[in-house]
Amino acid sequence: MKIVIVGAGAMGSRFGFMLKQAGQDVALIDGWDKNVEALQKDGIIANYNGEEIQQPIEAYHEDAVDPELKADLLIIFTKAMQLEATLQKTQAYTHNETRVLCLLNGIGYEDILRRYFDEDQIIIGNTMWTAGLEGPGRPKLFGDGSVNLLNLGKSDAAVSGAHEVIDIFNEAGLNGVYEKGIFYLIYKKLCVNGTMNGLCSLLECNMAELGATEANREIVQQLVSEIVAIAQAEDVEMSREEMIAHVEECYNPETIGLHYPSMYQDLIKNNRSTEIDFINGAIADKGKKYGIATPYNDFLTRLIHTKEELLGAK
Ligand code: NAD
Question: Which parts of the sequence belong to the Ketopantoate reductase N-terminal domain (predicted)?
């Protein structure tokens, strides 16, 4: 099976590295010139739990993909705002039975993917793996994780396609899980990303520092209440109290509290645009669709966009 990963940043490199190390036939596609040059020259040079491991890998610039390349499994790991432009180019290296797996943070990707692929080809999910980048072609890969996924279409072929991906992931140590309640998990993760990402970026603090303030509590509770209301409108059962408690676990300095969320890394450290439109912005959009008021998510989205403009984020 030919596995093509489009978006070879931190996460695309992690999955590419682990799948290739397990003996899979993997190619990476990316639009960042320096990254593609590094991958083509030296392969992936991973800081893998503190050990440097070099893994040669097939890699292409998104504008110079081998016309012979055809993906049996396409894994998407661009940033959310790059997704649509990326999908417009994937026709060249996919076929009618290519499985397309999207593991981006945020919500609503299934609606975008349906415009480019048959429902039976689409697999959605989320992942607890993490990754960072120390430079082009140099991912920093620490810790453990898992991948929860579910076929969007209901045919037998769709179900077996998802199971095939899980088997491949498990052989590579990526810990795949077939998850019928995938939308619950996606919204649960959104409760964390929809609070910690935007607030820590605006306030320039880590999660433990945010949690130590009194005034944040009402904001976090309102953001989560709106997210849960949208989830319920989409028939995803979740409890507001449980989700608030889940978010508050992030404050613990002995677990992940000292961590700066990925949006902080993108915007404050690296001056890059954020995925806010697919996190809080997506909640505000769905609020309009369902007639549910989402003022906190709407306001947070606008504040992050204002900060992006002030910082000249690209
Ligand atoms: P990333 O920023 O590392 O890579 C995404 C794309 O941006 C790639 O095409 C990459 O080449 C490009 N890019 C990265 N740095 C760049 C730079 N300095 N200049 C120009 N282009 C650059 O993103 P990621 O962390 O791999 O995330 C991909 C998706 O996975 C996102 O939706 C993210 O929210 C999600 N996700 C990330 C993590 C994580 O720990 N990183 C965990 C779970 C989910």
Answer: 3-149
